[in-house]
Specification:
The complex is a heterodimer of chains A (about 350) and B (about 280). With about 350 residues, chain A is an all-alpha fold. Chain A is built from 18 helices and 2 strands. Chain A has a two-stranded antiparallel sheet with strand order 1-2. Chain A starts with a helix and ends with a helix. Classes of the chains: A mainly alpha (about 350), B mainly alpha (about 280).
């Protein structure tokens, strides 16, 4: 999946629904000439006119039932225009009515009808990601191994950032894919299951920068390398981190990368105790067989672990040896000074 | 002003080199250490103080260039002295910073003094731990420079590594690990061992001004390096090292510069050490 296409949320509109929208725009334009106070695609004005003002909005709060959990919440009908504009759906070519399609052409003289249908994200616009997701290793795991894998809502609705203070939890405010806070949250979302991978990512050059809170698009988070909906195991040919596509993936940021560059270990196991345990077990199993030993040692992860352990040793030795040396030197100076003082005092008496 | 006899211990070149290293080392540590201690709040704060990503990284690279410049100056100086001026004693003898046989005896004598079974030993121009600090600075700079350049230009560097080698030895990852832990070693060493054993000694507190003003008093000279003092006196060279004592103003300026830097270093090593404790407990 190419990044630009995935990042933009307009792709659904290019195919089927675009046609409907064009018709809607046309019909609305004709109606606009006839009815002065009606709601049309192509203009958020009438909506914003009431939904940002407490004195104009007749119904400011409503009860909403979560279709999945059955949870009942009171949600505000007020919209913070600035926050909304910054969201994935806040672009100038996108309108309230695109999602709230049952309000198309509604007469606003008396206010529109109170109960809208729940917004359907997938049928008209986001059918592609759903299709792609079904091809991913996540779904393969679910089908073949009956594993509990994340589905749409685990990633998309579970993010509190989708809600604003003003709109008190409104799924309307979906952040853009490039939004730093959104990108930061995705690291934690992936990491909530892939703990070991999150930890090892933090030990690498990319992860140490994002750990310091910098998550704009110039430092990769999980999905920049692994993909979003079509995440595939690296052993699969189509995988973004597999043999075939890894140069292309790294090349998005690093100009002029070669076949050696992509051998880089993005998830070093240097601080993973379990990795050391498996190493020890493998060593025991080998029984001193030189071929088996060679295989264990000539592994990039093992070599990184050796370098790391070596440095821990150097640090421990240097600081304990020189720390003791400095302390003893300090005490000896103080002791000498006291003795000298003692002598001086004796002479004085 | 105390009317004492003063001698020159460090020439202008070495004082300037030390100053350059202070500036670049602090720039490198303050912008680099946050990455190594990324999970702590203070690291984030410090990183943001220096402009965060990528500004902190640019400062880091500029300071690296200053370090390269200081290293270049050092070896150019050595080259001029040894090859052009044909001066002797840089690699062997009392003036050499390389380890000499007598250093072994000095270490033993020092340990005896620590234990209280011997007198404070007398030293020549360079004491063994000073030599160790010098040599570790050389080694550390080399390691940090090589690994730093690899991390600076990973794509270009891996071009010269054959794929067969790269699939066993992941050079950029090794460079990152070595760069990170060598940095912790260097920063920790300078801010604790070097500070406490040079500037914050009970008899020097808060700063050993010799490396900033270049001057030491006769009493200090005799106390610290009696063998060198006696040797110079015997060779009738002592007078050539004699200088006017530094004024109170210069002394004040030295402290004004050095004390905040020492405090910054102590805070850094305190934070690093507390992070280690938090991790270990």
């Amino acid at each position: 999946m190419d990044y630009k296409r995935e990042g933009s949320l307009t792709m659904g509109r290019l195919s089927g629904p675009g046609k409907y929208r064009l018709i809607a725009v046309f019909v609305s334009a004709v109606m606009a000439a006839l009815l002065p106070v009606a709601l049309f695609a192509g203009d958020n004005g009438p909506c914003i006119d009431c939904h940002t003002k407490t004195d104009k909005l007749k119904v400011q709060e409503k009860a909403k039932i979560d279709p999945v959990t059955g949870e009942i919440r009171v949600v505000s009908m007020l919209v913070d225009e600035a926050i909304f504009k910054a969201t994935a759906h806040g672009g100038s070519d996108f309108f309230c009515i695109d999602c709230h399609q049952d309000l198309d052409g509604a007469d606003l003289t008396e206010g529109h009808k109170p109960n809208l249908k729940p917004v359907d994200c997938i049928t008209f616009c986001h059918d592609d990601p759903a299709e792609e997701y079904l091809q991913s290793s996540h779904v393969k795991h679910m089908k073949e191994k009956n594993k509990d894998v994340p589905t749409c809502k685990d990633c998309h609705a579970g993010l509190t950032y989708h809600y604003t203070d003003l709109g008190e939890k409104s799924p309307r405010d979906v952040p853009r894919g490039t939004d730093p806070l959104h990108r930061k949250i995705t690291i934690d979302a992936c990491g909530s299951c892939h703990t070991d991978y999150l930890n090892s990512y933090r030990d690498n050059a990319h992860g140490q920068v994002t750990a310091l809170g910098h998550t704009t698009t110039d430092v990769p988070v999980c999905f920049d390398c692994h993909g979003k909906h079509t995440i595939l195991n690296s052993s699969e040919a189509e995988s973004k981190v597999g043999k075939e596509r890894i140069i292309e993936t790294c090349g998005k940021c690093h100009a002029n990368v070669g076949a050696s560059f992509v051998k880089h270990i993005e998830h070093p196991q240097i601080k993973n105790l379990n990795y050391y345990k498996t190493l020890l077990t493998a060593l025991k199993k080998s029984g001193g067989d030189p071929e088996a030993l060679k295989k264990i040692i000539l592994n990039p992860q093992t070599i990184l672990c050796i370098v790391f352990v070596m440095y821990v040793g150097i640090l421990a030795f240097t600081f304990s040896a020189f720390g003791v040396h400095s302390l003893l030197g300090w005490f000896a100076i103080v002791r000498d000074e006291r003795q000298r003082k003692g002598h001086a005092d004796e002479e004085h008496h | 002003m105390k009317s004492t006899t003063n001698y020159l211990r460090f020439g202008l070149f070495h004082r300037f080199s030390h100053f350059l290293i202070i500036i670049s080392f602090f720039g490198l540590v303050l912008t680099g250490v946050p990455l190594a201690f990324r999970s702590y709040g203070w690291a984030r704060w410090l990183y943001e103080m220096f402009g965060g990503y990528p500004t902190a990284g640019y400062i880091h690279r500029i300071c690296a260039l200053i370090t390269f410049f200081a290293a270049f100056l050092h070896f150019a100086f050595l080259f001029v002295c040894v090859s052009v001026k044909k001066q002797k004693g840089y690699f062997w003898g009392v003036d050499s910073l390389l380890i000499q046989p007598r250093d072994i005896f000095d270490i033993i004598a020092d340990i005896k003094w620590f234990m209280g079974i011997g007198k404070r030993p007398n030293f020549d121009r360079w004491i063994y731990w000073e030599k160790f600090e010098y040599l570790s600075l050389m080694w550390g700079t080399l390691v940090m420079a090589v690994t730093g350049i690899i991390l600076w230009f990973p794509a270009q560097f891996t071009k010269i590594v054959p794929v067969a080698v790269a699939s066993i030895i992941d050079v950029p990852s090794i460079a990152l690990i070595v760069h990170r832990y060598e940095a912790i070693l260097a920063a920790g060493f300078i801010f604790s061992i070097h500070f406490f054993h040079t500037h914050l000694l009970p008899e020097k507190m808060p700063v050993d001004e010799a490396i900033f003003t270049g001057k030491i008093t006769e009493a200090e000279f005799k106390h610290e390096r009696l063998i060198q003092f006696n040797r110079l006196e015997k060779q009738k060279d002592l007078e050539s090292f004699r200088v006017a004592p530094s004024s109170l103003f210069v002394s004040f300026l030295t402290r004004l510069f050095a004390v905040p830097i020492l405090i910054t270093g102590l805070i850094m090593v305190g934070l690093m050490f507390s992070a280690l404790l938090v991790w270990a407990l």
